[in-house]
Amino acid sequence: MASLMDDLIQVLENENREYEKLAELSKEKKQVIIDANVPALEKIVDQEQDVASKIQNLDHRRQKVMHDMSVVLNKQEQDFKLDTIIEMLSSQPREQERLQNVKEQLKTTLAEVRKINEQNQTLLNQALDMVEFDLTLFRSMRTAPETANYNKNAYNTGEILGGSGFDAKQ
């Protein structure tokens, strides 16, 4: 059981480290979104996918360790949670404290990742709104009334956006 406990704590610590990496990448992404730097955004998204893959592998490992612990302790797996394990370790205060600490660290890190991701989502929505506004503006300029385009001799030129108009293919 001690070996399983050490494995669980190690997996949770590794998960926390990976989530901290994800938080740092999300902070970098925030500035990249503000700067509208698409190539840098692509790099960060690729890095985030690598970290997410590592987190997923660690999560599977954690689930396996938790399953093994539930079997050893003859507990129902669906009722076997970290809080349950922490309560069971009352006779082993050192392990109990280690597990409680890593749980709190992970909880804090996840809250930070969630907060940063919500901010990034808001920034992305604002950027999309701005692009939509620009497109609407260009469309409305293309269909503007001809009365607004006079040359210096006060004759209507009949041209919108110059002679060729706006070409969306460019």
Description of the molecule:
- This protein is mostly helical and 170 residues long.
- Helix content is 74%, strand content 0%.
- It contains 4 helices and no strands.
- It has helices at 2-35, 38-72, 82-88, 93-142.
- The longest helix is centred in the C-terminal third of the chain and has 50 residues, at 93-142.
What does this entry show, briefly?
By secondary structure, the chain is mainly α. The chain is 74% helix and 0% strand. The chain has helices at residues 2-35, 38-72, 82-88, 93-142.
What number is the mean pLDDT? 84
What is the H/E string?
HHHH
The proportion of residues in beta strands is: under 5%
Q: What shape does the CA trace take?
A: elongated
| DSSP summary, beta strand count | 0
Helix content: over 70%
If you compute it from the alpha carbons, what radius of gyration comes out, rounded to the nearest whole angstrom? 28 Å
Q: How many DSSP H or I helices?
A: 4
How widely separated are the two ends?
65 Å
| Unreliable runs | 163-170
- Main β-sheet: number of strands, strand sense, barrel status? none
Structural class: mainly alpha
Structural descriptors:
170 residues, disordered C terminus
Question: Layout of helices and strands, plus pairs?
Answer:
Blueprint: H1 2-35, H2 38-72, H3 82-88, H4 93-142
